[in-house]
């Protein structure tokens, strides 16, 4: 593989990585990292219980809805 080909492969992988990982995080006024960890854990238990461990779009939506119900909001980085 030539150096130009390697560069293109690395560039494409980098761009793909940016598309796969969102540029946002969860925030809640007055909350600590520990508060988030507890709410995230509880929401995961609610959202993924009874499943075989497979993460689906529907289960992620349930997870997000749970966090939002607890006062968390998505904020762009």
What topology does this entry show?
Blueprint lengths: L2 H18 L3 E4 L5 H16 L8 H13 L3 E4 L1
Helix pairs in contact: 2-3
Number of domains: 1
Low-confidence stretches: none
Distance between the termini: 36 Å
Structural class: mainly alpha
* Oligomeric grouping of the chains: single chain
Overall pLDDT metric: 83
Biggest beta-sheet profile: 2 strands, antiparallel
Helix-residue proportion: 55-70%
Question: Measured on Cα atoms, how large is the radius of gyration?
Answer: 18 Å
Helix-strand string: HEHHE
The backbone outline, from C-alpha atoms, is extended
Strand order of the largest sheet: 1-2
Q: What amount of the residues lies in strands?
A: 5-15%
The helix tally amounts to: 3
Beta-strand segment tally: 2
Provide a descriptive summary of the structure in words.
α2 crosses α3. The protein has three helices and two strands. The protein has one domain. Helices cover 61% and strands 10% of the residues. Strands 1-2 form a two-stranded antiparallel sheet. With 77 residues, it is mainly alpha-helical. The model has no long low-confidence stretch (mean pLDDT 83).
């Amino acid at each position: 593989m030539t150096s130009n080909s390697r560069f293109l492969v690395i560039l494409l992988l980098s761009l793909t990585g940016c598309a796969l990982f969102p540029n946002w995080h969860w925030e809640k006024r007055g909350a600590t990292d520990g508060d988030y960890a507890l709410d995230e854990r509880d929401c995961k238990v609610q959202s993924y219980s009874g499943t075989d461990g497979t993460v689906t779009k529907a289960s992620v939506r349930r997870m997000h809805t749970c966090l939002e119900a607890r006062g968390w909001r998505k904020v762009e980085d």
